[in-house]
Write a structure and sequence with these properties.
With 141 residues, the protein is of the alpha+beta class. Helices cover 33% and strands 18% of the residues. The longest helix has 22 residues, at 57-78. The chain binds guanosine-5'-monophosphate.
C-alpha cells in the first residue's frame, strides 16, 4: 500500500533535495518541482500515508493546520488573486506521488495555470521562491 521509495519519502529522509519552506515535528512543506504557478508549494505529513484515507485523524489535523499556515505565507509572499488548495487520491483523480500531500497553488487573474506535473522549474528559482515564503512566514507567525 505505502511504497517507502516514493519521491516524497526520499525528500523526508534527505535522500533528494527540495526547496523547503516550513518544517515541524509533524509536517514538511517545500516547493513543487514542476509548479503550476510561481509559489506552488506542497505540504506533506511526516507519517507514512498514501492518501487522504490512509492517515490517522490527528495527523491529518496537523497537516491541514500546517497547510493553512503555509498558505498564509504563500499569500503574503506572492500576493496572488486567489489560492487553490488541492489534494488528489489515486491515479484516476490525478495523484502521481503516493505520499499524501496538499497543493497550495497561487492563481492570478487572466493567467492560466501551467500543466500539472509537466515542466521542471529552475532549482535556483525555486530556492528564491522558498526564501520569499520563509520570510513571509517569519513576519506572519
Ligand atoms: P500529485 O499529482 O500526486 O497530486 O502531485 C505530485 C506533485 O509533486 C506534482 O505537482 C509534481 O510536480 C510534484 N513533484 C514530482 N516530483 C517531485 C520532486 O522530485 N520534487 C518536488 N519538489 N516535487 C515533485
Amino acid at each position: 500500500m505505502y511504497d517507502t521509495n516514493n519521491i516524497f519519502a526520499k525528500i523526508l529522509r534527505g535522500e533528494i533535495p527540495a526547496a523547503k519552506v516550513h518544517e515541524t515535528e509533524h509536517v514538511l512543506a517545500f516547493m513543487d518541482a514542476m509548479p503550476q504557478s510561481d509559489g506552488h508549494t506542497l505540504v506533506i505529513p511526516k507519517v507514512q500515508a498514501r492518501n487522504f484515507f490512509d492517515i490517522e485523524p490527528n495527523a491529518l489535523a496537523e497537516l491541514i493546520k500546517a497547510t493553512q499556515v503555509v498558505a498564509r505565507g504563500v499569500k503574503d509572499a506572492f500576493k496572488p488573486d486567489g489560492i487553490r488548495i488541492a489534494q488528489f487520491n489515486e491515479p484516476a483523480a490525478g495523484q502521481t506521488v503516493f505520499h499524501l500531500h496538499f497543493h497550495i497553488i497561487p492563481c492570478y487573474e487572466g493567467k492560466a495555470l501551467r500543466a500539472h506535473s509537466r515542466e521542471m522549474a529552475d532549482p535556483a528559482l525555486l530556492a528564491q521562491h522558498a526564501e520569499r515564503i520563509k520570510a513571509a512566514l517569519q513576519t506572519t507567525s
